[in-house]
């Protein structure tokens, strides 16, 4: 059991192929689906926006963001992911949007975002900041690429994250503390940083908001 927990934890941080990887992918789709939907909704995406999701996993959040944007504007959704297997999975799910030019997927790391300064109007991520190697560096990069007047949203289910950590299924979430993450956001220049406790039907979750003046 301990070796399974170790493998599950490792795949949560960096999803890959294999039986445990498949299980983690299903877990992400089932457990994170509503968090992805809410993050995209809370951003207030407009048809002309450039939108970035960091750590998009199977691509559920990208799909919601594209739906919020609609197909008539000049906006575009960008996805950054460090797992080649998740890029493959999201490409299969969203190949039509990639072909139309509305979606671009990139292999990379939040520590060094491959986007120009002030290039994104909206940024979101779900259940991933606590895996970053350096919170301040990740927040600094997000701040750099967010345009003035832009917004960022992070959604998470604290209760579920704590449970997976306590049960040893999420051993690499060592930077989980939301207060520490919000402190990093403020330290790197973000304004209006706050956390709200919200609900999607019967499901409770937290949303962390931040902006750039």
From TrEMBL:
CDD domains: AdoMet_MTases (cd02440)
Annotated keywords: Methyltransferase, Transferase
Catalytic activity: N-methylethanolamine phosphate + S-adenosyl-L-methionine = N,N-dimethylethanolamine phosphate + S-adenosyl-L-homocysteine + H(+); N,N-dimethylethanolamine phosphate + S-adenosyl-L-methionine = phosphocholine + S-adenosyl-L-homocysteine + H(+)
Name of the top EC class for this enzyme: transferase
Domain Methyltransferase type: 52-154
Pathway(s) it belongs to: Lipid metabolism; Phospholipid metabolism; phosphatidylcholine biosynthesis
Origin superkingdom: Eukaryota
Molecular function (Gene Ontology), one example: phosphoethanolamine N-methyltransferase activity
One of the GO BP terms on file: methylation
EC number: 2.1.1.103
Pfam family, one: Methyltransf_11
Designated name of the protein: phosphoethanolamine N-methyltransferase
Organism, scientific name: Branchiostoma lanceolatum (Common lancelet)
